[in-house]
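Write out this protein's structure.
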Amino acid sequence: MPQETAAIPRRKRIALIAHDDRKQDLLEWAEYNKDSLRRHLLYATGTTGTLLEKRLGIPVVSFMTGPLGGDQQIGAKIAQGEIDFLIFFWDPLESHPHDPDVRALLRVAVLKNIPVATNRATADFIFSSPLMDSAYERYVYDYASRLKRGRLIDSLQDGE
């Protein structure tokens, strides 16, 4: 698949999201990593952003709450290349009315090849990486060409 690269800058734009039963875990993780988080730009869905800003004393750009569109707002920022990193402590045991939004958010993060942590252990490993304090060239895969090729193949098969 043809690919290019895009820079993830030294000062990363990090989105932080947590479902209700995971908010405390995210808050504790963020407090432990407060000095590292301070070096980056932080974004969050509504309630999570308010809690993080109050607990850490660090500015957080907050979007709407997840179920009211916050997950989609962050997904749009990822699609536009305006978010470099996603930390999303989601609750795998709870069904959420906005599950399709959650899937779409995770899908766009994978499509854009940005680092994603969905639990504390992964966030710890990623945040302890030396890459967190330097710029990084990530691959940007050309999924549009792949989709076009797929449609062309489908149309050729339909015409047989």
